[in-house]
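Final report, Chapter 2: Outcomes

The project's central promise was a pipeline that accepts a single protein chain and returns its three-dimensional structure in a standardized token representation, suitable for archiving and comparison. That pipeline is now operational. To close this chapter, we reproduce one record exactly as it appears in the project archive, with the input sequence first and the structure output second.
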Amino acid sequence: MKGVIRTAAVALVALPLLSGGGEGPSVQAAEVKNAPRSAASTEAAALEAKRQQLAQKEAALNAKEAELNRLSAKLDARVAELNAAKKGIEESLTAKNKQDDERYKKMIKIYKGLKPEEAGNLLNKLNEKMVIQMLNQMDQKTAVKLIPFISQPRVLEWTRLNLAGK
């Protein structure tokens, strides 16, 4: 096999001489030697360009990831702020409802102290929503005493609302 390779190499060098080519064997040999080098250097350059592209893409992705992390932290802070505000509003609402309940209880005690006819006349002068709320907070015994003196439409509305579960 080695003999075949030597013969082929000698033939490659001798062929241009025999064909009358003006170039000598050294030019031919240089071209043969440079062909693999130029292919390898082209391939290396292509790999280097690809590596640079990947590095640029990675840098762009890292920048986007950093921006997303910054925005995520900003959103988390805003959510925490909103939750704190919500908690404050809920506490305030609870305190207000408690205060309203206490005021209704005081008013109910006052109405309880009045004669049923006087209390009924006063309740008839209030708006319907207030009367219904007061009747809902009264004990059954007091409500029974007042019902004959409260206007019938209000008593009927209060009854409908209680039966409907509202």
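Archive annotation: The CA atoms of residues 129 and 158 lie 9 Å apart.
This record, like all others produced under the grant, will remain available to the consortium after the project formally closes.
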